[in-house]
Each structure stands twice: as C-alpha cells, then as structure tokens.
Amino acid sequence: MILQLENLEAAYGMSQVLFGVNLDVREKQVTCLLGRNGVGKSTTIKTIMGVLKPRAGNIRYKGTEIGGMVPNKINRLGVAYVPQGRQVFPTLTVRENIIFGERKPKEKRTKVWTLDEIYELFPRLKERQNFMGDRISGGEQQMMVIARALMQNPDLLLLDEICEGLAPIVVQELAAVIPELCRQGVSVLLVEQSAKFALEVSSTCYIMEKGAVVHSDETKNISDEVFKKYMGT
Question: For the residues 129-138, what does the mean pLDDT come to?
Fold first, then answer.
C-alpha cells in the first residue's frame, strides 16, 4: 500500500467532520472515494495533504506517518494534489501554468514527466500552449491543472472532484487519461460524486456517509443496489 488511513478524525474548529476513516490506496491503481455532497470526501483529501490537521488517527505514506505535516513537506515526499475547482494563473500561458509546478525528484525514480510527455497525454494543451490560462475552456483548464500536478513528478496523485462542471465528452477524455497515469507508475486517489465515472476508472471503491466509510470493495463487485443506497444513482 502506498497510502493507509487508520481511524482518521478531523474537524473544522468544534465541528467534527471525519469519524474514524479507514482507507487504503494500492500502488499504481486508482482508488475512488465516493459519496454524496457534504459527507467528508474533500475533508479527507485535505487532511491527507496537510491542509487540515487530523484530530486523531494515522496517515501513512509509504510506511511513514505524515499526519500533521505541512503541505509542502508532504508534496516533497511525492504527493501532488489537485483541489476542487480549477485553480489557474490567468496571467500565465498554458505552458507557463504547466511548468510552474515542475519539481525534479530528489530520489531516483522510474518515471520523470517531461513537457513533451504531458502534451502527448493532453494533445489539446499543446495546441493551446500559448493561450493565457483563463482563455481556454473549463475542460482544458482541468487538464492543465492535472498536468501541472504531474510536473511535480508525484508517486501519489490526489484528485478532488475533477469532473465537476465538465461536458460529458471531456469527462470521457479524463476517463481514458486516469488509468494511463497508473500504467505510467502513478497511484491515484480520486474523490468523486459521479458513480459512473468511478466505475470506469477505479479498481477499488470506498463509499462515505456522514464522515465515515460505510462500504468498500473492488469496484467491479459493488452492486447497483449499493450505489443506489448511498449515492442515489
């Protein structure tokens, strides 16, 4: 396992949001965390990344406890984060937005991303590379921020609601890209509301409700009845 959460609790001030979350992310696989809006999915991913400090429990990355570390230290260990909402630098070109996050890994790794490989993964970004970051479509912006995260050369990529507000054709493009990242050696934890998207891209699925994981299994084994019960779909 590249990431393990054990009895993770987190809160915003006096308001507790996570109540003993247990979750594992396997290497070079897509693990999806599903749930309706407001159940604690984004809080989970923010706590992993150090944006929010855990109240209790453990977060182990490659066997090392990272709970409570600051985000930039977690990032240097090999974890990249694409937060909910497309965060672009409007005064930079698409190319500049992408390379802004470039970081050479300190340790030797099998995979080190180059700009050419990013453009091969996202051909439209190459076509738009000289456009300003806020002058491309929402789908292209989402590709751009994922590309920026990949230029940090992560072993683990945290993706929060990347399909939100995107056209179906763009969602399908992302559904093809995410498994390819695993083939390139990147492990992925994907937070999503879309059960359909999760079914397409993930190998393992966890479902949250009221701040806790209420069901988990290999994605192919989760029944329609379970999705309907917890997701309403």
Answer: 95
Q: Identify the CA nearest to 147 among candidates 77, 100, 104, 196.
A: 100
Digit-coded pLDDT (tens) for 80-100: 999 988 789 999 999 999 998
pTM for the full predicted model: 0.93
Which long-range contacts link 59-63 to residues 24+ away (Cβ below 8 Å)?
59/3, 59/4, 59/5, 59/8, 60/3, 60/4, 60/6, 61/2, 61/3, 61/156, 62/2, 62/155
Whether 205 contacts 198, CB under 8 Å: yes
How many whole angstroms from its chain centre is CA 46? Answer: 10
Q: Which residue has the tokens 């999503």?
A: 192
- Give the CA angle between residues 64, 65, 68 to the nearest 5°: 145
Residues 188 and 178: their CA atoms lie apart, in Å, by 8
* Token digits of residue 186: 């990147």
For residues 233 and 225, give the distance between their C-alpha atoms in angstroms, rounded to a whole number: 9
Please answer whether residues 7 and 58 qualify as being in contact, where contact means their C-beta atoms are separated by less than 8 angstroms: yes
Helical H segments across the chain, by residue range: 41-49, 71-76, 94-100, 115-121, 123-127, 138-150, 168-183, 195-201, 224-231
Higher-confidence position of 232 and 15: 15
CB hemisphere CA count around 36 (13 angstroms)? 10
